[in-house]
Design brief:
The complex is a heterotrimer. Chain A is mainly α. Chain A is built from twelve helices and no strands. The model of chain A has no long low-confidence stretch (mean pLDDT 81). The chains are: A mainly alpha, B mainly alpha, C alpha/beta.
Chain lengths: 321, 314, 348
């Protein structure tokens, strides 16, 4: 080491070899803190380009679905349109300037029908999703946490689980006769099982973990333990299941409509529209009547699915490393 | 092992009994028109009542249940009222089962083989293009409703490939579309399952040790990971096979295949209660038996399972 | 020690991991020598980088880790630059073997134990069929498994933790490696079993003539088995020496702190000693001595410049400015002096 000025360096060196002031706080500062769960979750979620894309897409679709009736120049989804000149109904008009999505076989405007149908189907989906979430969590939480009821509830679960969902759904719709309320009720009745089982299994695993035992020893009431210690841990899964239940519900709706147990024909819904389209899908000129509803359905369901999965991954603390 | 099997058998029989009884009682809620069909409009309340009485539907519920099980023991599932007047349900159902199972088993085979292979390929190429492509397929099949994408298969399969739309048992080429349609969902299921399984296993300690032992990656994949995979798979297999008895409700309808699933749709649309009841019971039982067999297979292959009491919900 | 056949020479090794776009420097220039036939113990707290260091000897760093600088010379061959699987296959299991910490998860639960040992034999010694199974049974016998013939046909869950660890050891030494690395091999085991396992490794080392590296945070284990000790802190080796030198004449403030934390050195009626603070954030560049912020007796220069390795004796080195001639004379803490005093008494 070159020292241009020997004396100065020596003096400086000597100073360096004195004891430094000790600051206990400095020692603590080494850690890697700065962690906020929600900030980390949001960061991870938005980092993926696919999530952003679908978020924007879904946002736009949802926004437009509910705003559409208020946009000027919109027609009613149920009116049958007639050409004033000929008095003939505007049947099967190809998409064009007058009817953006064309018309169906009896002269109704497909554009307004599709948005109206989306509104209906989304309404069913969201209602069912919310109901499933509440029922599923409530049932699952009690089932998992209250040991005494475990046997009984497991038996109930096993019975319900063993009846194929499709069949049970069809049965309920058949018994209660098709209608909007029937649909919602039947799907709720069938859909909460999966979430309940998952919540129960998770609770069984973590209720006996040390931090929960500690809470119990301190006298924390069961309700508080479940709400504060356990449920936040389950957020990611619950959100995933709920997000995924919406495409599922729409799927059931289409299926039931095909069977003839769906909504009455007068109420436009994605199920009805898809089925109407299906009936004439073999003629290429009329195919647009199938393409539009199926594309919209696909976009909505894929968006929910992708977003649900992305959010679930992002909110899992184990991925926050 | 025998003890475990016996215990599970009893459990399954109990569940079966509860489910069947529950469904049977649920059936009592079916709309009354379903017992009479078109005649219902013209019948007077007295005639309706007499008719119900004759069919034993006004007896107390436990009596009905008893008679049902008695009949079941003899292999008698009742008689159809509307679909085929007065023909035994079993006679109507029997010829349909081979169609459903035929398609179903082929679909399961295709799905397992292609799906597992796809899953392995995806796991090996994690994050790269094949993985992304596979994920795209899986997302599509899971997100878009079955009812929707199968329509496209039928549509484009027939218009672009010239395949027949409806099933005809004399023309094998008409079997292709429905066969593929049935396996699409299964392929996605097995692919996703296998990929997740492989990724999870590859992170486990014993794999790390195998690497430290000096085993090349290829050998680890085959001798450890894939070899361990067939054990949990065994659990799904019987259920998958038995489910084929029920057939795919939607696909059989779409392609007019004379199978069990299509039958269910028909009898619901025709409102034939006794048929509906019989079919629902069959579908439910099949699931339980499948689960039971699956557990047995698991116990056979996994040396760790002995007399483990299963912790309730599956 | 001298410069004879050092079977392993590590020089200024730097290992980094990329996490979420940032770089974590897990090993910040570690240097180590391993003489043939000896037993070296690497001690340090969790997060000091002990496991990462030894994993780099067999190329088992995680996917996002890489050796950025320095060299690892094994029997004269450079290991640091090896990147692909093929490069490492001749080393793993054959020349350098490893025993992991948790015996409960180290074995494939669905394969018979004998089969898992045969796997290694087939791979590295070219045995197959009957020859392989016989050799496997013989290995089981060597590691002290009773009734090895029958045991070879059983599954891991039929073995206790201690026995599973023996099986893992059997797999590791079956091909007579030159170096055996044991990463906390007894941490997950009962105290009584610990002694047995350590004894087993010692015996095998004699019979098979390999060199052993122990990773541990348990100084009791060190005292039991080690010829030499290397103390690690925040990705660097801060002190090396024979076991006696490190225990009874430690020079680095961190080693003082570590030894002082031993409950056995506590004085009745006084609070137990523990090192205050936490290890530094390895995402950031560290200036000077990494231990300085937690050292009440740190010098100003400890915060400015990194101390080089100073020689205390041909076998004993420590990287602390306290060994610089310009530094003030500092006595080690009370507990350390007491320990030394007891040692000197015993020697006399």
């Amino acid at each position: 080491m070159k020292a241009p000025d020997q004396a100065a360096t020596l003096a400086a060196d000597a100073a360096l070899f004195e004891f430094a002031d000790y600051d206990a706080g400095e020692g603590e500062r080494g850690g890697y803190s700065n962690y906020s769960y929600w900030k980390s979750t949001t960061k991870m979620f938005l980092a993926k380009k696919t999530s952003l894309f679908f978020l924007v897409l879904l946002g736009a679709l949802l926004f437009f679905t509910f705003v559409q009736p208020f946009v000027p120049g919109q027609r009613s989804p149920t009116t049958i349109f007639q050409d004033p000149a000929t008095g003939m109904q505007f049947r099967n008009v190809t998409p064009g300037a007058q009817f953006w999505f064309g018309t169906n076989s009896i002269g109704q405007d497909l554009w307004s029908r599709i948005w109206s149908g989306t509104r209906t189907s989304l309404l069913i989906g969201l209602t069912v999703g919310l109901a499933e979430m509440l029922i599923g969590i409530a049932f699952g939480a009690v089932w998992g946490y209250v040991r005494r009821l475990d046997r009984v509830m497991t038996e109930i679960y096993n019975v319900l689980d063993n009846i194929p969902t499709t069949v049970l759904l069809m049965l309920l719709a058949y018994i209660m006769r098709p209608s909007f309320k029937t649909m919602v009720f039947a799907m709720c009745a069938v859909g909460w099982l999966g979430l309940a089982r998952f919540v129960r299994n998770q609770i069984v695993i973590i209720r006996d973990r040390e931090y929960n035992l500690a809470s119990r020893c301190l006298g924390t009431p069961a309700r508080r333990i479940v709400l504060r210690n356990i449920l936040p841990y389950l957020v990611s899964v619950i959100m995933l299941q709920t997000a995924l239940s919406i495409p599922g519900t729409i799927g059931w709706e289409v299926f039931l409509t095909y069977i003839g147990l769906g909504l009455p024909v007068q109420i436009p819904s994605l199920g009805n529209l898809v089925n109407e389209g299906r009936m004439i899908m073999m003629s290429p000129e009329l195919r647009y009547q199938l393409i539009f509803p199926t594309v919209i359905t696909s976009l909505i369901t894929i968006s929910f699915y992708v977003l649900g999965n992305s959010f679930s991954d992002a909110s899992d603390p184990r991925n926050h490393v | 092992m025998i003890k475990y099997a016996f215990k599970r058998l009893l459990q399954s029989l109990l569940t079966l009994f509860i489910v069947v009884s529950f469904v049977f009682l649920l059936m009592r809620l079916l709309p009354i028109e379903g017992y009479f069909g078109d005649r219902f409009q013209k019948m007077s309340p007295g005639e309706v009542e007499a008719g119900l009485q004759k069919m034993g539907l006004l007896d107390p519920w436990y009596a009905q249940l008893g008679k049902f099980y008695a009949g079941l023991a003899k292999g008698d599932l009742g008689v159809s009222f509307i679909y085929r007047r007065d023909v035994a349900v079993t006679k109507i159902i029997a010829p349909r089962i081979p169609y459903s199972m035929g398609f179903g088993l082929t679909a399961v085979a295709i799905a397992m083989i292609s799906g597992l292979a796809m899953g392995v390929g995806m796991a090996k190429n994690k994050g790269l293009f094949p993985d992304k492509l596979g994920t795209l397929y899986i997302v599509f099949v899971h997100a878009v409703p079955l009812a929707v994408y199968l329509l496209f298969v039928q549509l484009y399969g027939s218009s672009l490939l010239g395949l027949p739309i409806l099933f005809d048992k004399h023309r094998p080429v008409s079997w292709i579309l429905p066969g593929i349609s049935m396996s699409l969902n299964g392929i996605a299921f097995y692919a996703m399952w296998m990929r997740r399984y492989m990724v999870d296993e590859l992170n486990k300690d014993y794999i790390k040790l195998a690497r430290a032992k000096g085993l090349p990656n290829g050998a680890i994949m085959v001798k450890h990971v894939m070899r361990n995979a067939y054990v949990p798979l065994a659990q799904y297999l019987p259920a998958a096979i038995l489910a084929t008895i029920g057939g795919s409700i939607y696909i059989e309808s779409l392609y007019s295949i004379p199978g069990m699933g299509g039958l269910l749709v028909d009898v619901i649309q025709r409102q034939d209660n006794s048929m509906v009841q019989a079919l629902v019971l069959i579908f439910s039982s099949v699931g339980i038996i499948g689960l039971f067999l699956g557990d047995l297979l698991m116990a056979l292959f996994d040396p760790r399972i002995k007399l483990v009491k299963s912790e309730g919900a599956r | 020690m001298g410069n004879e056949t050092n079977i392993l020479e590590v020089r200024d090794l730097v290992i980094r991991f990329s996490l979420r776009g940032r770089n974590l420097t897990a090993i910040r220039g570690a240097s180590l020598s391993l003489a043939e036939g000896e037993t070296l113990a690497i001690v340090g707290e969790s997060g000091s980088g002990k496991s990462v260091l030894v994993k780099s000897f067999i190329g088992m760093l995680d996917q996002n880790g890489r050796v950025d600088a320095g060299s690892i010379l094994f029997e004269g061959a450079e290991l640091a630059g090896r990147k692909t699987e093929e490069d490492w296959l001749p080393i793993r299991g054959r020349k350098i073997s490893m025993v992991f910490q948790d015996p409960m998860t180290s074995l494939n639960p669905l394969l018979k134990v004998g089969r898992q040992i045969e796997e290694v034999l087939e791979l590295h010694r070219g045995l197959s069929g009957k020859a392989a199974s016989l050799a496997a049974v013989e290995m089981l016998d060597r590691v002290g498994i009773i009734d090895p013939q029958r045991r070879a046909g059983q599954y891991p869950h039929e073995f206790s933790g201690g026995m599973r660890q023996r099986v893992v050891i059997a797999m590791a030494v079956a091909c007579q490696p030159r170096i055996l690395i044991c990463d906390e091999p007894t941490t997950a085991l009962d105290v009584t079993i610990q002694a047995q396992i350590l004894g087993l490794i010692k015996a095998l080392q004699r019979d098979f003539a390999f060199t052993t590296i122990y990773i541990t945070h348990d100084l009791g284990v060190v005292a039991n088995v080690a010829d030499r000790v290397a103390v690690m802190y925040a990705g660097k080796i801060v002190e090396t020496g024979t076991a006696e030198e490190v225990f009874y004449d430690p020079r680095h403030p961190y080693t003082w702190a570590l030894l002082s934390s031993l409950p056995q050195l506590g004085v009745k009626g006084h609070p137990l000693y523990s090192i205050s603070g936490t290890p530094p954030n390895l995402f950031r560049e560290i200036k000077g001595d990494a231990f300085a912020p937690r050292n009440p007796k740190a010098l100003k220069i400890d915060f400015e410049r990194e101390p080089p390795m100073f020689e205390v004796s041909p076998t004993h080195r420590a990287a602390t400015w306290l060994l610089d001639p310009r530094a003030p004379r500092l006595q080690p803490p009370e507990a350390i002096r007491a320990l030394r005093a007891k040692y000197l008494e015993a020697e006399a």
